[in-house]
Amino acid sequence: MNAKVLTFLILSFTSAVFSEDFKTVNGKEYKDASITRVDPDGIVVKTKSGIAKVYFAELPKDVQERFHYDQQKASGYSAEQAANYTAYQKQQEEAQRQREAATAKQKTILLEQDAAKNRTQALQAHYGELQKQEDDLLLQIGEAKQPGPAYYGGKNNRTLLHHPNPKKSQLPFLQSHLSDVRREKGEVRKQLEKAQR
């Protein structure tokens, strides 16, 4: 057994060092080929045109015998290689699927973050508008509560009297509108606090 292994190794190393020509049973030629590896199902050769695997089933009987070709071992090796390749392909497909899922998840997260940012900015702008409306309404209410223009009247025109304020009639409407604005402002504030958590 050890002698066979030793012979095999010597032949393998010797073949790797020297270049030779190989011709398959189909007539394909490999000129000045160096054997770089011997597998149970074939040999890997290096030529000027590149590296190729030539299967023993494609080589003449004398070359098969020279490398101790065993069809049963070759079939088992080929089946194992095919199974390994299939497992590798499945592993690569699963890795690709996971990468795509991670990319899609990241994209969804970014879209959600952008949408949340846009919602927050819209709420802040709306809150600013409501604050301005509240300030304007308070100013108008303050003006409506003021007495009208002053004039002197009464006996001897010495008593300071006021004309009715024309804006006073708008006071109930302004106060109702202020109440609505403040209510809406409170709702927007709650939405903003929720969005910023």
Characterize this entry briefly.
With 197 residues, the protein is α+β, with helices and mostly antiparallel strands. 62% of the residues lie in helices and 18% in strands.
How would you characterize this protein structure?
By secondary structure, this protein is α+β, with helices and mostly antiparallel strands. Helices cover 62% and strands 18% of the residues. The protein has four helices and six strands, in the order αββββααββα. The mean pLDDT is 86.
Primary descriptors:
18% strand, four-stranded antiparallel beta sheet, two-stranded antiparallel ribbon, alpha+beta, 197 residues
Secondary-structure topology with pairs:
Layout: H1 2-17, E1 20-23, E2 29-39, E3 42-47, E4 50-55, H2 61-66, H3 71-145, E5 150-153, E6 159-162, H4 171-195
Helix pairs in contact: 3-4
Task: Determine Rg (CA atoms, Å).
Answer: 47 Å
Q: Span between N and C termini?
A: 75 Å
User: What characteristic shape results from the CA principal axes?
Assistant: rod-shaped
With helices defined by DSSP (H or I, 4 residues minimum), what is the helix count?
4
Unreliable stretches (pLDDT < 50, length at least 5) are none
Oligomer: single chain
Output the helix-strand order: HEEEEHHEEH
Strand content: 15-25%
Number of E-type strands: 6
**Estimated structural class:** alpha+beta
Biggest sheet strand line-up: 1-2-3-4
Largest sheet: 4 strands, antiparallel
Helix content: 55-70%
The overall pLDDT average reads 86
